[in-house]
Amino acid sequence: MSSKTATYTGFEFEVAGFPALAVINKDLADKAVQATYPNAVLIEIIPDTYNEFGHPEEKEYDYLLDVEKKMIDYLEEQTQTVHVGHTTAFRKREIIFYTKEVDKVDGFLNYYLSTIERENFYEIEADPDWKNVSAFYELL
Questions:
Q1: Partners of 98 in the β-ladder
Q2: Could you tell me the CATH number of the domain that includes residue 82?
Q3: Number of C-beta neighbours around residue 21 at 10 A
Q4: Which of 128, 131, 135, 81 lies closest to 107, judged by CA?
Q5: Coil, strand or helix: which one is 88?
Q6: How many angstroms separate the CA atoms of 34 and 98, rounded?
Q7: Are 81 and 97 in contact (CB under 8 A)?
Q8: Are the C-beta atoms of 26 and 140 separated by less than 8 Å?
Q9: Domain range enclosing 10
Q10: How many folded domains does the chain comprise?
Q11: Are 113 and 70 in contact (CB under 8 A)?
């Protein structure tokens, strides 16, 4: 499943009284597809510049999209990983993948995130039922 041909949809919601946005891959709503990628990959990046809502300013937004695109390109081509989407909340961009290959993804992220010059965190956890993103898929 390539994100290049996927259909994404957007959501608006609130987190701690601030507006938040999500862009989610609709093509991954099928439980049979989800079952083949049992591990959640949650990557949090703190933007350098942001507006009064804590969302990245235009140049920073473009930079974060480029960072995300590079992750998508590598992970989808070199590992068995799917791009679920991202959320933007107060001073935080979270990029979401699900994978079959934890060690390969961990190795790549450990290297790649050290090059982006932004504060970041990531975790990879078993989530065979996709509970981390189920609220979005229930809204489709």
A1: 40, 82
A2: 3.30.70.260
A3: 15
A4: 81
A5: strand
A6: 8
A7: yes
A8: yes
A9: 3-138
A10: 1
A11: no
